[in-house]
Design goal:
Blueprint lengths: L1 E8 H11 L1 H7 L2 H7 L6 H18 L12 E5 L5 E5 L1 H9 L2 E10 L3 E10 L4
Antiparallel strand pairs: 1-5, 2-3, 4-5
Helix pairs in contact: 1-4
Length: 127
């Protein structure tokens, strides 16, 4: 079992959004996530939470954003109750399979100032 956590200051996300406009959002998120965020200017805490969730996932693998992993390889979805979960694609999915990671869990929380996410990966070969 492996755990990864990330915390992001929401004001820094607001500044990044204002500076880059849509290019940051398109670089970080897939279509489902963009529709979940709705208006990035009205929901910077959602942007920060999803961003932190992606960072937490790569930290849990111990690899980080190396070996060709991109933000689009890690998608955050929501079940019928609104609970977030991971959908892995591309290089990240290949790494998950290679490490025999069979389950993942995700928790995201935020307040006015910060968003935090914790990822839990479980499998036979996490070392």
């Amino acid at each position: 079992m492996s755990i990864g956590t990330d915390i992001i200051e929401i004001n820094r996300v607001i500044v990044a959004i204002e500076r880059s406009k849509d290019s940051l959002i398109k670089r970080l998120f897939r279509d489902y996530e963009i529709s979940y965020i709705e208006d990035v200017y009205e929901n910077p805490q959602r942007v920060a939470g999803l961003w932190a969730a992606k960072e937490a996932a790569v930290k849990a693998t111990g690899i980080g954003f190396r070996l060709g992993i991109t933000f689009h390889d890690i998608e955050i979805r929501h079940d019928e109750y609104g609970c977030p979960y991971y959908k892995f694609n591309g290089v990240m999915l290949e790494i998950m399979n290679k490490k025999n990671i069979q389950t993942s869990s995700l928790s995201i929380s935020h307040c006015r100032s910060y968003a935090v996410a914790t990822a839990l990966l479980d499998g036979a070969s996490l070392l």
